[in-house]
Every structure is written in C-alpha cells, then in structure tokens.
C-alpha cells in the first residue's frame, strides 16, 4: 500500500468515492494547501480560488491573524459547553453586537442552525409579543431560496433535488416570488398570522440574483407596517462580500461601507455564518435587539458547541481582519472593476449572456440551456488554466474570490476567465 505522500489526486478522489456518502459532485481537484487568494492541489498546482468556500473564506485562506487566534485558544481551552461560562464568549458577544449594532447575539455553529434559530425566535415572538394564536404563525419565504439543509429548511425550498423523498415537511411557511413587493404586500395584507419575512439580500445559490434597488428598503417598510419581523439571511452575502459590511444596507442612502444598516433597512433578525470565522472554524450567529431576543429563555434553545471559546476567539479575529484590511471597500472597488471588464467581453460574446452581481459576489450566465454541461466544462477548463469556480444552477457560474485580492491579481483572473471563455465561443 502506498504511503499518504505518494498519493495523487485520483487516489483521494477514489477514496471519497468508495468511503464517502455521495452528497456532493465536486470538481475533480484535490486541494492540500491554501494561502490568501490561492490554493494548491496535491500535485502542487496553484489556483486562484474563485469560490472561497461559498464565501466563507472572505478573509483569504489561512489568514495568519485568524489562525493565531484559533491555535492560541485551542491550546488554552476549547470547550466548556454552556453549562458553565467561559472567558471568551462574553467579550465576543460584546464585540460582535457593537460591530453589527444589535443588543444581543445567539451563538451557533453552522448557517443552517442559525436559520433554524431565527425561525424559532420569530415564532416565539409571534406568540408572545404579536399575539398570534398557538401554532398559527406563518413565515413568508421566497421562491428559489437557499437557507440550508435541515428538514425544516428544505421544507420551504422549491429545489426538487433538495426536497424529494425527505418529507413529511414542516408546515408554517408561505412562498412568494423574490424581488416582488406586490406579492409581499398581498400576503401580508391578507393574513393576520404572519410572523416574519425571511429573505436573502441577494439570492446566492439561485445564481446571484440581485433584487431591484429599492426592494429591501421597501420590504422592510412593509414588514414594519404589518408588524412582521424582517429576517435577513446574510450567511453568504454578509461580512463585506457585496462591498458593504452587510448586503442589506447596500441599497440605503448611507455611504458608510462598514455600517450594519440604518433603521430603514436594518434586519430585525440578522443571520450570519460562513465568513464570521473566515473559514477557519464553523461559527454562526443570530443577532437581534432585546425586545425580540428576550423571548428566548434558559432551556428554549442551545448547542453544545455554540459559543465555544475557540469559535469566539476566531470570530473576533475574523471580524477585526474585515475592518482593519478594509475588505468591504476592496470588494466594492474590485467588484466594479470585475463587472466592467467582464461586460466588455460579454458585449461581443456569444457564449456568455450576461454578468451580474455586487461587490465580489458575481456570476455569469452561459448562453446554453440549464441542463447543458457547458458551464461545467468551462469550470473544468478554468481549472486547467489555474482558476477554480463552480456552476450554481446548470448554466450559471459564480465568481466569488477571497476579498483580500489585489487589483493586479483580479486583472490576472479576468484575463484567465476571458481567455478560457474564448475557447468556447
Ligand atoms: C451556506 C448558506 C446557508 C447554510 O449554511 P451552512 O453553514 O452550510 O449550514 C444558509 N443560508 C445561506 C444564504 C447560505 O449561503
């Protein structure tokens, strides 16, 4: 039997194929190391990472400040459970609530858990504050949403692959079209049992759908009018990805890039995950003000690992990096450059229909039907040219590099992408 260091990519792929559940369809590349905007495969080939682990690695791979915080805390105290206090959680909660301008934070681990937490808080608020009668609360969600993979969350998905044969489904969700204020007002107007509106500020998994300029502000206003909680799932869009600290404030008039939203767009419940740890560790959180978060009492909710000392130390470091390195500003500027450079190509391309996005969350739509394998083949060619990206839905390719990229690197990537696309014209 060969020793580990002699193994090549194909050996690792075969191990996963044989011993792992087949719940993903990865690009055939086996990564062994990462630094900043780069990753290396087991053969030593170097790539630009244009997925950033679905926007978890906004701060770049193995950011030294985040890794230091993690390893120092790992050597000191890793887990106490919430049966006891630890000396990292309180300082983290103070730091993060100041950073995002909320009264309170509830710590969890994964994005899906944070969404579940938000759903539970919203329902409890509905019964105890809004006065909806027992078990009648409804939460409005959007068509083509992606909020995670738990049984309740897939209950309000409309992706057949994510849902089929996982029933019975959790009830209490109403689905409306995304980016449609009339649909929102209609459902709010005609139903007294609506507790919340759960929305992605940009639909990432669906293919980087950016809603109209005034959508979020007006949706928030409607929620306020009907006494319904405006719940923003910023697991993918948050933490500087879209050129602002949060995408919810991307449409408001305030020019401040690190603001967590003026009251006109600020979510009543904010859901964060992914880049909250810079990809070093699973850290998620739900933030809300006291009048909402106070419905949660001891025993109502919890997690063995949620709020553990390593997560707390890592999250503080990850958020400091975002602010100190001005990643929102960088994402904003590089995003504009990326789209304008790509647009020049799209204007004369027959293979790419359009480029869209905000900050460094962008996508191109390939001029082929949803079930074609063109987008996949383009991603394979991009890989061969030193850039890793993945199709989202059939004919859409998302481009989301770490936000620590330089202008020179970005232009190099634009060159790789255009050169690759040209071979498919
Ligand atoms: C990734 C994602 C989630 C789920 O996060 P996990 O950590 O994978 O559970 C939820 N919502 C959005 C918008 C996401 O992009």
Please give a structural write-up:
The chain has 425 residues and is an alpha/beta fold. The chain folds into two domains: 2-59 and 327-422, Aspartate Aminotransferase, domain 1 (Alpha-Beta Complex); 64-324, 3-Layer(aba) Sandwich (Aspartate Aminotransferase, domain 2). It contains 14 helices and 15 strands. It has helices spanning 9-19, 52-55, 64-74, 89-100, 111-130, 151-155, 160-163, 181-189, 215-225, 290-293, 309-324, 327-346, 374-384, 407-422, and strands spanning 31-35, 38-41, 46-49, 104-108, 138-142, 173-176, 194-199, 229-233, 269-272, 284-288, 352-358, 361-366, 387-388, 390-391, 396-399. The strands form three sheets. Strands 4-10-9-8-7-5-6 form a seven-stranded mixed β-sheet, with helices on both faces. Strands 1-2-3-13 form a four-stranded mixed β-sheet. Helix 3 runs antiparallel to helix 11 (309-324), helix 4 packs parallel to helix 11 (309-324) and helix 8 packs parallel to helix 9 (215-225). The longest helix has 20 residues, at 111-130. The mean pLDDT is 96. Pyridoxal-5'-phosphate binds at residues 54, 110-112, 115, 146-148, 200, 204-205, 233, 235-236, 273. Pyridoxal-5'-phosphate (PLP) binds at residues 54, 110-112, 115, 146-148, 200, 204-205, 233, 235-236, 273.
């Amino acid at each position: 039997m060969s020793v580990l260091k002699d193994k090549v990519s194909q050996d690792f792929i075969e191990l996963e194929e044989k011993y792992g559940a087949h719940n993903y369809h990865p690009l055939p590349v086996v990564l062994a190391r990462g630094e900043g905007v780069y990753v290396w495969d087991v053969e030593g080939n170097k790539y630009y990472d244009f997925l950033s682990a679905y926007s978890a690695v906004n701060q770049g791979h193995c950011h030294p400040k985040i890794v230091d915080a993690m390893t120092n805390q790992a050597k000191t105290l890793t887990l106490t459970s919430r049966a006891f206090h630890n000396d990292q959680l309180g300082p983290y909660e103070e730091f993060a609530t100041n950073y995002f301008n909320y009264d309170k934070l509830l710590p969890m681990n994964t994005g899906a858990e944070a969404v579940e937490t938000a759903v539970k808080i919203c329902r409890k608020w509905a019964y105890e504050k809004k006065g909806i009668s027992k078990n009648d609360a409804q939460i409005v969600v959007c068509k083509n949403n992606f909020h995670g993979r738990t049984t309740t969350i897939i209950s309000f998905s409309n992706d057949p692959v994510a849902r089929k044969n996982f029933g019975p489904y959790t009830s209490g969700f109403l689905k409306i079209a995304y980016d449609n204020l009339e649909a929102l007002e209609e459902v709010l107007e005609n139903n007294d049992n609506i507790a919340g509106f759960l929305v992605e500020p940009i639909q990432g998994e669906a293919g980087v759908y950016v809603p109209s300029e005034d959508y979020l502000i007006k949706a928030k206003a409607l929620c306020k009018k009907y006494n319904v909680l405006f719940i923003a799932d910023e697991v993918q869009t948050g933490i500087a990805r879209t050129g602002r600290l949060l995408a919810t404030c991307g449409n408001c008039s305030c020019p401040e890039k690190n603001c967590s939203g003026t009251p006109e767009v600020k979510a009543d419940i904010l859901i964060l995950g992914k880049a909250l740890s810079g990809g070093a560790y699973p850290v998620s959180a739900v933030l809300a003000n006291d009048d909402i978060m106070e419905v949660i009492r001891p025993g109502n909710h919890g997690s063995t690992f949620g709020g553990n000392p390593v997560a707390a130390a890592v999250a503080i470091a990850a958020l400091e990096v975002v602010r100190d390195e001005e990643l929102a500003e960088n994402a904003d500027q590089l995003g504009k450059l990326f789209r304008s450079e790509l647009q020049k190509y799209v204007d004369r391309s027959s293979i790419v229909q359009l480029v869209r996005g905000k900050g460094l969350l962008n996508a191109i739509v390939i001029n082929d039907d949803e079930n074609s394998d063109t987008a996949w083949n383009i991603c394979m060619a991009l890989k061969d040219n030193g850039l890793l990206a993945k199709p989202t839905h059939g004919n859409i390719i998302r481009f989301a590099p770490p936000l620590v990229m330089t202008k020179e690197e970005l232009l190099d990537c634009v060159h790789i992408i255009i050169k690759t696309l040209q071979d498919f014209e």
